[in-house]
Design a protein that fits this description.
This protein is mainly α and about 375 residues long. It is built from 23 helices and no strands. Helix 4 packs across helix 5 and helix 14 packs parallel to helix 18. It is elongated and about 75 Å long. The N and C termini lie far apart (about 55 Å).
Length: about 375
């Protein structure tokens, strides 16, 4: 610990460049281990020195400082410590604002690194309200940066912006902002639910959709006449199969007559998330009727065949069957308007989970 403390004196803004660089290189290497991170997180002076060096005139020093913050905020306790200290120090280090400005700067070489720091911080739900206060005025600019693939002129990809938006929708205010027509955030984000070049960008976007689907308040918005969100969900579950003219007429226009080259989502975790979105949308009678009318069953019928033969993920098969079971039932059989009104005891929930686990094992036998 004393050795680590001694490095702080060499990490001051007015220190010689070679000393700053060497000290920070050592600190960065320490953040690669749990013991090293714990030692650094226990030293406020060390963290304050790292904050200061993120603004260093030397690009290598600034980069190593930001990389250190990525590692230090990778776990919840570290993220909370860094964020709270940044709020308390004098002068205050507005870490979320600094990150947002770097990400929004087309010429910023560390935009990707800062987006990873902000992704780590926003993953902690308790920090999201305060971070939203900072980010709300810049959300449109951040969405613009995300939607334009060549936005950053220094070859930063900004894929982790998807994770940031996803994390912000953990809380109700984040979901509200995302769905507000005046921001049009969803319109900018949805096309990336099937973005093949990056699973981070794709997964973050699907996570946004899932968070919104899990809030019944937005089900009417999701299943509106534009079908944008439903198309984003189904697009990744569709393959190249041909449908009859009758089935095609049910589907949103974007999903009709897909090419032979059409592929499905390759990541089983993301496929399962999409299927869980559909299950949540089955909550109310009106939404179930919309899903049936839009050809969701027909899409899942073909998807289930593919998953059983090609995807081979038992949890995805179960998730698919859970949705299909509901859609195949007549409303008279279901006998209730809203599944969320049904109370399930903890004992029943455990029994259902055990039954599902046993059933999953049989699906691919």
């Amino acid at each position: 610990m004393e050795t680590v403390k001694e490095l702080v004196q060499f990490m001051q803004p007015n220190q010689r460049l070679d000393l700053k660089a060497v000290a920070l290189t050592h600190v960065l290497s320490l953040t690669g281990s749990t013991e090293g991170k714990d030692a650094i997180l226990s030293l406020d002076d060390m963290l304050m020195a790292i904050f200061g060096l993120t603004r260093d005139a030397n690009a290598t020093v600034a980069k190593d400082a930001v990389l250190s913050l990525i590692n230090l905020t990778a776990e919840e306790a570290g993220a909370i410590k860094v964020f709270e200290l940044a709020q308390q120090v004098q002068p205050r280090f507005a870490i979320a604002d600094v990150a947002a400005k770097q990400i929004s700067d087309e010429q910023a070489e560390l935009a990707d690194a800062w987006s990873m720091v902000l992704s780590n911080l926003t993953r902690v739900e308790s920090l999201v309200p305060a971070i939203l206060d900072t980010l709300e005025p810049t959300l449109l600019q951040l969405a613009k940066a995300f939607a334009k693939l060549d936005y950053n002129k220094k070859k930063c990809k900004l894929h982790y912006l998807a994770s940031i938006f996803c994390n912000l929708t953990q809380v109700s205010r984040g979901r509200e902002i995302c769905c507000q027509p005046k921001y049009q955030l969803l319109e900018k984000l949805l096309p990336f639910a099937s973005f093949e070049e990056s699973v981070v960008r794709r997964g973050g976007t699907i996570g946004i959709i899932k968070n919104i689907c899990f809030d019944v308040v937005y089900h009417d918005i999701i299943l509106n006449e534009q079908d944008d969100i439903l198309v984003a969900i189904l697009q990744s579950l569709c393959g190249p199969e041909e449908f009859s003219d009758e089935d095609n007429e049910k589907l949103p226009i974007e999903l009709q007559y897909l090419p032979e080259s059409k592929t499905r989502e390759s990541d089983p975790d993301l496929r399962k998330m999409l299927l869980e979105c559909l299950l949540q949308l089955c909550a109310t009678r009106r939404c179930r009727e919309v899903l049936r009318a839009k050809g969701v069953y027909e899409v899942l019928r073909e998807y289930h065949k593919w998953e059983a033969k090609v995807g081979r993920d038992s949890e995805c098969l179960l998730a698919c069957e859970n949705v299909v079971d509901i859609l195949l039932k007549k409303e008279e059989e279901i006998g209730l308007d809203n599944y969320h009104s049904v109370e399930v005891s903890a004992e029943q929930a455990d029994k259902f989970a055990q039954d599902d686990a046993a059933y999953v094992k049989t699906l691919l036998d």
